[in-house]
Amino acid sequence: MEAAATEYGMERPRMKKSPCLYLMPSTMSDGTVENVIPSTNILLASRIRYFIVENVRTARRFLRRCDPSIAIDDITFSVLNRHTSPEEIASMLDPMSAGHDMAIISEAGCPAIADPGADVVAIAQRKGYRVEPLVGPSSILMSLMASGFNGQSFAFLGYLPIDSRERVARLKEMERRIQNERQTQIFIETPYRNNRIIAELTKALPGRMLLCVASDITGERQSIITRPLSWWATAKYNYDKIPTIFLLYS
Amino acid sequence: MEAAATEYGMERPRMKKSPCLYLMPSTMSDGTVENVIPSTNILLASRIRYFIVENVRTARRFLRRCDPSIAIDDITFSVLNRHTSPEEIASMLDPMSAGHDMAIISEAGCPAIADPGADVVAIAQRKGYRVEPLVGPSSILMSLMASGFNGQSFAFLGYLPIDSRERVARLKEMERRIQNERQTQIFIETPYRNNRIIAELTKALPGRMLLCVASDITGERQSIITRPLSWWATAKYNYDKIPTIFLLYS
């Protein structure tokens, strides 16, 4: 236990220790910030001076939409994306050792869900820092709520495999988990392949299985439609290049 | 296709049709509403006159916290819980056929996620009504963000089985999915058994596996701690009767 106690800084689970690493969700569309972000987050965004972001330009834009009078030039941004090395990630939390609060903002929606923020959070946890998630939009959770599918058991699988044999195997496994575990299966696809994946699903899976297509969540053209695959097989639709999430259940 | 087209009211996926069924998240703790609910939801809560709720008393209280001047007596509440019959559920959406917007509010957090709202949403989808999810707090998503675990693949499993043999089998299956699929496993326990399940996990699973215990999310005593099971085996903690969610990963 000695080793673990040393590696994991905190002695007791409940000790609250400043500073704090906030997980700060951002908007997923161009709609008004107040539609999807609680006012407390907006106040916090104006106060924090050290941010970890995927893209500085969009992060700046989000912060200005939260507070048009924000002093952007006083803010330090560290960029975290799939090119960031583990050493760079480890040093990103340095401002916290000097006592500063920090926040992670993702490109869209909730940080560390389907994006690289989780590595930084894991380090903050190991160092024993306080980590606080804030409320914001998540296409996974919002589509699940509106699908009518089982919300007591569900899985998000990220992207389907590209290789067609692996892809069919994955779909069959999802079918098994729907049948045997009553587990809603949620996944995404590269947006230019949205129409193709719907056609593929109608061929690979039983027609009575239900598909929910949730598109442009929180946006102007939001549409969340649950129908049997037999309906989708002959329906007219066009989700090309629109951010869309897919849910299966029966 | 004829049958499906008749049963599923809408002809085209993108047609927007009033009225709308809103999924309206509620607070999970006694903190201020503005901390976790966007201001747009609060405005909407003051406007809607037909609600489907788990408990009328807590729903009234939530609506008053959103808008102290709300005219509660003008609001119609339908109660949806596990005792509600399928026939009652089907008739709950009658106000929508008269053109009224409706909203589902759960006891705490997001409706239709780990609560009975999903049945009503499924009917609304079948009737071709517009369904719109609103942003709000979810202990599942917030704990996942702050855990540092894989957010590109995760599963929420609800409650663990009570029978001890089934329980051990479930834990072993979770261990397999963490190893083979890199899938974060998330579950809950009856709050008076929180301490016991942590002890159980430290015995049933490898000591190097990581457990995140996320407790009183959004509340005064919020604490989200990720440590190896070997650390939890000797740690001092007391989560008795505090709403808590558990996440496993390695």
Multimeric organization: homodimer
- Strand count, sense and closure of the main sheet of chain A? 5 strands, parallel
Low-confidence stretches of chain A: 1-7, 9-16
Most extensive interface between two protein chains, with residue counts: A-B, 79 and 79 residues
Instruction: Name the structural class of chain A.
Output: alpha/beta
Count of alpha and pi helical runs of chain A: 10
- The percent range for helix content of chain A is 25-40%
Describe the strand arrangement of the main beta sheet of chain A, using strand numbers.
Answer: 3-2-4-1-5
Average pLDDT confidence of chain A is 91
- SS elements, strand count of chain A: 10
What distance separates the N and C termini of chain A?
47 Å
Shape of chain A: elongated
**Beta fraction of chain A:** 15-25%
How large is the radius of gyration of chain A?
21 Å
What order do the helices and strands of chain A follow?
HEHEHEHHEHEHEHEHEEHE
